[in-house]
């Protein structure tokens, strides 16, 4: 990905039924710092920005009081519009919230959420779109690259102990492991 890094895209196509899936993995290691990317969506053209959401990335839209935890939707390489459609479908078409046990007020709230996501995609509602990836392997296209994008803010931060724990980094031994193996033999 230009101005980012190498990624691995694994695509599967079923010749029998036509079902297609893809999953994206970072081509590199976990970055030394986490990354928080904030885009102020102000124009419908923002929907065409490429986005790489890694499996360790969470998504937040404060105007909708919405947060999607890491691991949900897996790794994706799509456009901002594509990711918003996936989020809308995940929430609005969820069988656990629309089945026999759903209430009319819950259905109305979910439909309202879907309408607001659609308004953002159509450019009728401004919003902030936040990607928070403690592994630092997510990307949102800067359409002004290599110049600075006035609506895009990228912050790098030190991960917390809990974030390192979730990524499996706290107990990972990266120095002196070779000598540890020879002494056990």
UniProtKB/TrEMBL annotation:
Keywords: Metal-binding, Zinc, Zinc-finger. The keyword Metal-binding applies. GO terms for molecular function: zinc ion binding. Residues 1-142 form the Zinc finger ZPR1-type domain. The keyword Zinc applies. GO terms for cellular component: nucleus. Residues 165-185 are annotated as: Disordered. InterPro entries: Znf_ZPR1 (IPR004457), ZPR1 (IPR040141), ZPR1_A/B_dom (IPR042451), ZPR1_jr_dom (IPR056180), ZPR1_Znf1/2 (IPR042452). It holds the Pfam family jr-ZPR1. It comes from the Eukaryota. Belongs to the ZPR1 family. This is ZPR1 zinc finger.
